[in-house]
């Protein structure tokens, strides 16, 4: 019962975001853009999560004008299943990503799964991903701009801030039209 309530609330949340992104009015030109920051092994290291030790002023300023996830849940505590859940609104056992996507495992989401990038693409919203992707197949997660470990060194796209900055500039230079966009960053924290 609790699981069903969670799924309903989570799916409702995802669909509200999608409806808001896809809602357009012919008389009013408004662009709704989204940037998703996701980090491996990232916790509450930001001041916006009331951490007084770590100084993260740029992220804190961004957080003041953003939606923060304060009560997120993942049914599997590894990267591929949790990423696929975030991008589909479905737990891993329903989207097919039972385990890791890379290496000898090669788990994939089911071909019939409707993901956030797929739905946004159908609504002419340009999508991009920079950093660690770790999900598949590509036709379920069809990002328009993809600079990940699949076509770069993970040390460059997941950890090299200068390289990430240049890739963000490249994404925006290719997005000079007035399209709305969704850009996901998948960072790897170093401790």
UniProtKB/TrEMBL annotation:
<dbReference type="InterPro" id="IPR000917">
    <property type="entry name" value="Sulfatase_N"/>
</dbReference>
<keyword id="KW-0325">Glycoprotein</keyword>
<dbReference type="GO" id="GO:0006027">
    <property type="term" value="P:glycosaminoglycan catabolic process"/>
</dbReference>
<dbReference type="GO" id="GO:0016250">
    <property type="term" value="F:N-sulfoglucosamine sulfohydrolase activity"/>
</dbReference>
<dbReference type="InterPro" id="IPR024607">
    <property type="entry name" value="Sulfatase_CS"/>
</dbReference>
<dbReference type="GO" id="GO:0030200">
    <property type="term" value="P:heparan sulfate proteoglycan catabolic process"/>
</dbReference>
<dbReference type="Pfam" id="PF00884">
    <property type="entry name" value="Sulfatase"/>
</dbReference>
<feature type="domain" description="Sulfatase N-terminal">
    <location>
        <begin position="32"/>
        <end position="139"/>
    </location>
</feature>
<keyword id="KW-0732">Signal</keyword>
<comment type="similarity">
    <text>Belongs to the sulfatase family.</text>
</comment>
<keyword id="KW-0378">Hydrolase</keyword>
<dbReference type="InterPro" id="IPR017850">
    <property type="entry name" value="Alkaline_phosphatase_core_sf"/>
</dbReference>
<protein>
    <submittedName>
        <fullName>N-sulfoglucosamine sulfohydrolase</fullName>
    </submittedName>
</protein>
């Amino acid at each position: 019962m609790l699981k069903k309530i969670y799924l309903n609330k989570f799916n409702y949340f995802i669909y509200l975001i999608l409806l808001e992104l896809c809602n357009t009015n012919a008389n009013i030109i408004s662009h709704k853009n989204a940037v998703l920051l996701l980090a491996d092994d990232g916790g509450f290291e930001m001041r916006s999560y009331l951490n007084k030790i770590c100084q993260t002023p740029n992220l804190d300023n961004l957080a003041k004008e953003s939606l923060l996830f304060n009560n997120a849940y993942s049914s599997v505590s590894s990267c591929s299943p949790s990423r696929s859940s975030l991008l589909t609104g479905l737990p891993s056992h329903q989207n097919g990503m039972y385990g890791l996507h890379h290496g000898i495992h090669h788990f994939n989401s089911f071909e019939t799964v409707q993901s956030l990038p797929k739905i946004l693409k159908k609504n002419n919203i340009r999508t991009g991903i920079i950093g660690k992707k770790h999900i598949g197949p590509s036709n379920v997660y069809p990002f328009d701009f993809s600079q990940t470990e699949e076509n770069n060194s993970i040390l460059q796209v997941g950890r090299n801030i200068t390289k990430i900055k240049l890739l963000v500039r490249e994404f925006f230079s290719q997005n000079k039209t007035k399209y709305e966009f969704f850009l996901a960053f998948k960072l790897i924290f170093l401790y």
